[in-house]
């Protein structure tokens, strides 16, 4: 039966039939599952050969979700058309200007009255796909709104696609081409529409009074701070993303606690007046109640005093106040409080309550901010949560490909002359104009790598008629304030800078952040991104353009954007090719080559270096005020415990290396922890974990019937084969050769005829409370990990497994060495295949250059080992597979290590099985058998794109 015919039958007759790329699909935004119509459009664009959109309403934000994909299509010479309208004056003139910047898009305006179409047509290789429904090309429709869209497919000669194309021809022919002159005329008659997505208020204003009410985050934080005070605490720490209203929060708490005197400490004078004005808005009262203590002002009698740390830390000013003069002290940007000036000030003053506020409590030195505040975290809200609460301005991040100089990619060591060459500057202009900004009126911060680069680029931009300036470390406060004023007033469009605007500066009108530098840390990245996230009526979104060169730290980009600092390479790869984790109407987009540069950085980076692990360990210890264990890393999300399990025999070995423990474990106890960390902590199968848990609870002897009942009580498979596999694992009977030798003495159980007993070594080790603590720690981590896997079948789609894991999970009686498995193995009705899709030329261990390839989301073109013929035993199985399960595992390249993504079960296409001759290393030829393997379930489109595509 034809594949499209199957898909139609599946959609309209029997949903139990096998699916494919052609399946009709109802598309609904499901933010709770990170499933969006936007991602469907992006996938269609990535694979199409031509496209046509007929869309009534389009916004700049909606276009932003597609721009990197359109740019990639332009690189391949693929073009499209867009038909839109002026219906209801919804479409803004600025949006039409943005459309003209897309070189591979032809745009026309329909004059049809009431034009309200919403259709997307794609010419795909071999078929047509089209989406018709309720979604316009706006970011709300693409990600937030409850919309219904239906995706259908057709061959070229289908009746429905014929009708669609005929209507397209008629409408296109009767429409008007979009031109700059048309836009100017449209602007003259344009009447702006009020959009809910443009409501950018930072706080809730009461329409009936002249006072301000706290927003959602502030209400929650105020309750937490009050609860902290009621518990007797005298200190509290607020961790809150830039732009979420920390200053207003502090003012609300001061209003609530009613101190007789308050001191607000900042590290920069230009922040003082802004903070003072915010407090007065909230608290009210006479102007004389609010004063400033700085180098230029000395308003010492004010009830609410706003001081710079540079002034208040001087003894001559501290002595003007008694230590308990201020009942309430607040410190802004408190992560700087490790400096002597802060410590001296805090030693002198004795307030009833001390509140610290920061977006980034992590420090690069050894000072412990958490200890300074008695480990009392009153409230914490990071970037993702702040976006969810609609506290920040939406942003569109574009990871774009930086300029290549003489076939060399921009890197940390590139000479200044190339960074500021005419060609690179022209390249920057083009990208900045293409990706644009809200209302096309840039007010941008450009972060450079060097002072000379900032100075020269500012000069070159001015020469090109783009008014700009630069600010670096040697510029005074007055000079900085002047340039910021010029930027906000529109006198200049860009400020080029190096580091000085990472924090502590408030420029709400910034609508474009440009990164021309290596990402040195995820903290600095978020600080720089945060410069544009404060809401302001002048903008609907912020554009972030990150020029990605050949930087070794590129792996930090997905780490920073996703907030996933686990240092798990698989997670970072996924966060790069699957960017739907970002909340609300924000979006993350990478050009293809930029994405490949990030993959390369992830592959080559050493994320488990002792320097990094030590740093992460002590940061966590500072936060929780005790020695952290594996479950603490997991719960805090600061490091994947599996990184430590892979790096060391067990966690206690790591503690010994960093001199955080002097306890000595017995050799047997060490072996148990090593075995658990290497084989069980991943949580692939829950049975072993449940059984070990029972033994830790004192149940050290179980009969066979009790074992079955135990697993049944947890809704786990409890057939004889599965139970035998569990027992073989925990008794070490499954393991052979060097693997078995490495786990010597770590058998958890002894297998008897009628059941099991805890092994003598385990019973002895359980007498050591410290060992029990460490084993419980491993077990708690593994049980959390196990939630990621399905319990009713051996493998979970798109999770990663090592070769030896697959053998164990298929209940085979004995381990096979990875080298013996190689590309595949088979036994007892189970056939497992492992493919590396992008092999290097000197791919180790390969006699022949195999050309395994994912043809589409449903098909793997596959080669057997050599020499094999059409009569080889495994080929016979693949020719008659009815009684066999055939599982396929794949990795993108051998740089990814020893684990493989599980892609699902397949069936060989019998017509495709043929014997061929292929050359081997000695120049001779050997026979292999090639075939197409058809997946029973269509591969996830994002994973397919990641695995199948490679940078040109």
TrEMBL record:
The record, for Pfam families, names:
DUF3427, DUF8090, Helicase_C, PLDc_2, ResIII
Q: What is this protein called?
A: Helicase
The answer to whether UniProt assigns keyword Nucleotide-binding to this entry is: yes
User: Any idea which UniProt keywords this protein has?
Assistant: ATP-binding, Helicase, Hydrolase, Nucleotide-binding
- GO function term, MF aspect, one: ATP binding
Give me the Gene Ontology terms describing cellular component: cytosol
Domain Helicase ATP-binding, by residue range, is 227-379
Q: Which InterPro entries match?
A: DUF3427, DUF8090, Helicase/UvrB_N, Helicase_ATP-bd, Helicase_C-like, Helicase_Restrict-Modif_Enz, P-loop_NTPase, PLD-like_dom
Q: Which residues form the Helicase C-terminal domain?
A: 431-596
Query: Which PANTHER family does the annotation name?
Result: ATP-DEPENDENT HELICASE IRC3-RELATED (PTHR47396:SF1), TYPE I RESTRICTION ENZYME ECOKI R PROTEIN (PTHR47396)
């Amino acid at each position: 039966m034809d594949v499209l015919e199957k898909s139609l039958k599946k959609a309209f007759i029997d949903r139990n039939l096998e699916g494919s790329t052609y399946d009709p699909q109802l598309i609904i935004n499901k933010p709770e599952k990170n499933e969006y119509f936007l991602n469907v459009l992006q996938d269609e664009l990535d694979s199409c050969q031509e496209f046509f959109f007929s869309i009534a309403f389009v916004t700049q934000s909606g276009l932003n979700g597609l721009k990197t994909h359109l740019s990639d299509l332009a690189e391949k010479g693929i073009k499209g058309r867009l038909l839109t309208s002026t219906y209801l004056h919804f479409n803004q003139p600025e949006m039409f200007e943005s459309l003209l910047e897309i070189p591979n898009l032809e745009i026309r305006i329909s004059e049809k009255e009431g034009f309200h179409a919403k259709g997307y047509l794609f010419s795909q290789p071999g078929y047509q796909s089209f989406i018709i429904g309720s979604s316009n090309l706006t970011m709300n429709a693409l990600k937030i709104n409850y919309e219904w869209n239906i995706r259908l497919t057709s061959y070229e000669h289908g009746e429905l696609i014929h009708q669609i194309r005929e209507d397209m021809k008629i409408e296109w022919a009767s429409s008007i081409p979009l031109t700059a002159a048309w836009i100017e005329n449209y602007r003259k008659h344009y009447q702006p529409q009020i959009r809910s997505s443009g409501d950018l208020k930072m706080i809730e204003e009461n329409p009936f009074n002249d006072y301000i009410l706290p927003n959602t985050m502030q209400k929650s934080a105020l309750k937490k701070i009050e609860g902290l005070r009621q518990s007797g605490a005298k200190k509290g720490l607020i961790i809150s993303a830039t732009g979420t209203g920390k200053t207003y929060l502090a003012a609300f708490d001061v209003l609530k606690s009613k101190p007789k005197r308050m001191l607000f400490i900042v590290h920069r004078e230009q922040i003082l007046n802004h903070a003072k004005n915010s407090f007065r808005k909230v608290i009210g009262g006479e102007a004389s109640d609010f004063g400033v203590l700085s180098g230029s002002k000395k308003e010492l009698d004010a009830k609410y005093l706003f001081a710079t740390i540079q002034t208040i830390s001087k003894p001559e000013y501290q002595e003007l106040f008694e230590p308990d003069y201020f009942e309430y002290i607040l410190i802004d940007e408190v992560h700087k409080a490790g400096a002597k000036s802060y410590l001296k000030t805090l030693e002198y003053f004795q307030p009833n309550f001390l509140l610290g506020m920061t977006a980034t409590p992590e420090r690069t030195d050894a000072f412990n901010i958490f200890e300074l505040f008695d480990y009392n975290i009153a409230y914490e809200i990071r970037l993702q949560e702040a976006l969810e609460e609609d506290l920040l301005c939406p942003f569109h991040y574009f990871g774009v490909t930086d300029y290549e100089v003489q076939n060399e990619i921009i890197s940390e060591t590139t000479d200044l002359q190339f960074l500021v060459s005419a060609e690179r500057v022209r390249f920057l202009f083009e990208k900045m104009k293409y990706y644009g900004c809200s209302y096309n009126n840039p007010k941008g911060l450009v972060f450079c790598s060097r002072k000379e680069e900032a100075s020269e680029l500012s000069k070159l931009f001015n020469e090109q008629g783009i008014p700009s300036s630069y600010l670096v470390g040697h510029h005074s406060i007055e000079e900085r304030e002047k340039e910021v004023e010029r930027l906000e007033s529109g006198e200049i469009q860009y400020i080029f800078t190096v580091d000085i605007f990472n924090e502590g500066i408030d420029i709400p009108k910034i609508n474009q952040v440009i990164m021309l530098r290596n990402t040195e840390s995820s903290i600095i990245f978020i600080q720089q991104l945060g410069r544009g996230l404060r809401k302001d009526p002048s903008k609907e979104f912020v554009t972030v353009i990150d020029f990605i060169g050949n930087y070794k730290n590129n792996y930090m980009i997905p780490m920073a954007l996703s907030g996933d600092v686990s240092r798990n390479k698989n997670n970072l790869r996924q966060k790069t090719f699957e960017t739907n984790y970002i909340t609300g109407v924000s979006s993350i987009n990478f050009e293809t080559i930029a994405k490949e540069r990030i993959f390369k950085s992830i592959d080559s980076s050493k994320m488990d270096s002792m320097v990094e692990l030590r740093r992460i360990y002590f940061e966590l210890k500072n936060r929780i005020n005790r020695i952290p264990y594996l479950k603490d890393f997991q719960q805090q999300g600061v490091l994947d415990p599996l990184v430590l399990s892979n790096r060391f025999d067990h966690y206690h070995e790591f503690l010994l290396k960093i001199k955080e423990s002097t306890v000595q474990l017995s050799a047997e106890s060490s072996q148990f922890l090593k075995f658990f960390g290497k084989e069980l902590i991943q949580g692939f199968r829950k049975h072993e974990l449940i059984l070990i848990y029972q033994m830790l609870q004192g149940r050290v002897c179980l009969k066979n019937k009790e074992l079955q009942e135990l697993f049944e009580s947890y809704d786990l498979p409890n057939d004889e084969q599965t139970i035998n596999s569990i027992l073989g694992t925990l008794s070490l009977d499954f393991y052979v050769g060097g693997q078995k030798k490495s786990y010597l003495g770590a058998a958890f159980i002894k297998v008897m005829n009628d059941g099991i007993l805890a092994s003598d070594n385990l019973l002895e080790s359980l007498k050591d409370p410290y060992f029990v603590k460490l084993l419980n720690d491993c077990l708690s981590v593994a049980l959390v990990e196990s939630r990621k896997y399905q319990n009713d079948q051996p493998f979970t789609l798109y999770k990663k497994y090592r070769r030896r894991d697959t053998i164990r999970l298929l209940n085979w009686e004995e381990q096979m060495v990875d080298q013996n498995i190689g590309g595949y193995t088979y036994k007892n009705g189970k056939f497992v295949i492992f493919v590396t899709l992008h092999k290097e030329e000197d791919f180790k261990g390969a006699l022949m250059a195999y050309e395994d390839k994912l043809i589409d989301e449903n098909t793997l073109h596959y080669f057997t080992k050599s020499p094999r013929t059409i009569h080889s035993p495994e080929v016979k199985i693949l020719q008659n597979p009815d009684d066999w399960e055939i599982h396929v595992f794949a990795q993108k390249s051998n740089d990814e290590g020893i684990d493989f993504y599980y892609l699902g079960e397949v069936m060989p296409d019998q017509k495709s099985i043929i014997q061929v001759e292929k050359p081997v290393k000695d120049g001779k030829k050997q026979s292999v058998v090639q075939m197409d393997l058809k997946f029973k379930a269509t591969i996830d489109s994002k994973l397919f794109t990641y695995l199948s595509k490679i940078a040109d």
